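The following block was generated as part of the benchmark described in Methods. Ligand: adenosine-5'-triphosphate.
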Amino acid sequence: MRIYVRISRYIKPYSLAIISALVCTIFASAVNLYLPKIIGNVIDNVLATKDVATLNLIAVTVIVLIVLQGIFMYGQTYLMAYSSQKIIIDIRRDLYQHLQKLSMLFFEKRPIGTIMSYITNDVAALQTALVNNVIDFVNHSVTLVGSIILLLYIDWKLSLLMFVSFPLILYTVNVSGQKMRIKSRTLQERAADITAFLQETILAVRVIKSFSRESYELERFDYENKRNFQAQMKIIQVMAIITPIINILSTIGITAIIWFGGHEVINGNLTSGALISFLVYVINLPTPVKRLSNVYADIQRALAAAQRIFEVLDIEPEGKNLRGAKELSPVDGYVSFNNVSFEYKPGKPVLTNVSFEAKPGELIAVVGPSGAGKTTVVNLIPRFYNPTDGSIRIDNIDIDTITLQSLREQIGIVPQETILFSGTIYQNILYGNLDASQEDVIAAAKVANAHNFIMEMSNGYETTIGERGSQLSGGQRQRIAIARAVLKNPRILILDEATSALDTENEVLVQQALDRLMLGRTSFVIAHRLSTIQRANLIIVLEKGKIVESGDHDTLIKSGGLYSKLYRIEFKQ
Ligand SMILES: Nc1ncnc2c1ncn2[C@@H]1O[C@H](COP(=O)(O)OP(=O)(O)OP(=O)(O)O)[C@@H](O)[C@H]1O
């Protein structure tokens, strides 16, 4: 029931348009209902009495009715499509907005394709239900109920005969509808699996090719397709059984009516016209029943989709602001970790009692073996995750007590892998500060050593870069990411130095750009370069989530611990 209430909340703003559409539908269906009655009239009152005047009148009436029906059908289609599109846009928007608020953990737990499927497949299923099925439902319900009333009015004994088969039909529809609902959900999940698979393998096409795993991937794809096929066939099976059953039941009913009705006419209890009208109503009756059973199945499918959509909408944004969270005004850049512990999965600590301080403008290098928790430490600063224990303070304010947006406005991040959006280079740099002027963008590009290579491109700043910036080299992408960060002008900087080596020229340009970017900002660098650790005010050495050493380069080398070992293996080459 709750699901209907929630859907109705989306429908409410468009109720006037929907009601108007439904009124149009009712009138359009009423015309259909009236036509068999006219046929009966022609037989009894025109053909029997050879009354030409009435025949003319009936002909004109039929044409007028059909024209009116056309107008109503236009209204029904237009208004319903209008409102359902609007409703779908609202749902899609809410879903997208909600997804944006969900924590990183949500995205890490699910393949990208599955998440996309919520917004594409599930919303599309809802859309079909809203556009086609609501109209069909009203149209065929009116036809069904109207036909039954008219049948009773024409001859109730004949009607009773027909009604014997009806409960059987309704029962069949009901049982199959329940089955459809369960199977539809499975199908929807299988469809999402295929999207997820495609997404993953298309993104990883380079890896697949380099390992020559095309046939292996094809096998995996075949498997996903097979599962989808099986889910699809289970639904078809139910539908394939229900249709002939309904046909058989209706045909038995019609034959009985012709037989019994024929006797009624012969005995003079019924006119020929009335029997013909009756038969036309009865023959038309399976259509609404069949369509309603399809509508029912479609609505079940839509409900399954709606359920999945609402399940996502119900996931609490984990990184949400605490009640009474304050805006963080521009900071000096003092950052402290106070006994911070963290676990991604309960019971599996990734960081334990991490404490350190960074003064404004300092460079903090985070080093340690792979998996030590370096990325996790820096990800806690913009609150991509919340510490399980302890606190992080910026300018002595616990970051838990400030709004996420104002916190993240003060932090610039240059990741190891630069993610660019399809669009122009200009738009990609502007992403750092949407209010920046053209001069600012160019100045930032200059600081980032990006201006020259941009100007050498076919359309300069207006050059469109392919999806994820695939047309640019690694070093160029990094410099665009740096330009973005320069434009944002944050007080605190998080930098993940690329491990992959660039060519010497790019290396120098990137390094120079980074140095300019870090100047005067509190910078946390997951360090892979010798120059960074040598210059760092503080080096934090992590091992298995704990700080095992900290200090500057010279002190740590002298102490001869893990750092000096790492230094020999990783940095001093
Ligand atoms: N999203 C996640 N969910 C669960 N566990 C995670 C997640 N991210 C990282 N971990 C685990 O947490 C630990 C620390 O990971 P982290 O990425 O912080 O290490 P790192 O020092 O940055 O490693 P690397 O140098 O290899 O990038 C690892 O054991 C890793 O497996």
